[in-house]
């Protein structure tokens, strides 16, 4: 890749169903959001898309030099605005690909992210979710940046992936578990955390 890989961790949501503070909630002694930062470490320094307030895990990653922060001033309008901002930043940087992942999916493996980056070409690469549709984490070529930049509201990249030609990367049955509510934390198999 000549222009490099852009990596965006989506962390700007308000976590209403969780009651706020989701990404700083403790999971096996670490903040939930820190697992996404660790998963991308071998691929490069991510931009963490943040809203208000900025999660502590993101501030810690910034302080350690593990990530930069990108403030989404429209975060309250929905996930689509964070994806759009990430795509605009990737385009402005001339990135060869944009890897998107959510900060509330602590079991996503570094190997899966590397496989997504290796599989992206003319078409995006994505994982297949249990509902039978492709979704994030996913990696997008530059030809997709304008489409992603047009997303608004609560529509994420999955909306665009459903009708597209996508290279699928297989994942294990638990890898795509996310945390929406406090009780979801107890459903995360700790033995699979890295």
From TrEMBL:
It holds the Pfam family NTP_transf_3. InterPro entries: MobA-like_NTP_Trfase (IPR025877), Nucleotide-diphossugar_trans (IPR029044). The keyword Transferase applies. Keywords: Magnesium, Transferase. GO terms for molecular function: nucleotidyltransferase activity. Residues 174-184 have a biased composition (Basic and acidic residues). Residues 8-163 form the MobA-like NTP transferase domain. Coiled coil: none annotated. Residues 173-194 are annotated as: Disordered. This is NTP transferase domain-containing protein. It comes from Candidatus Andeanibacterium colombiense.
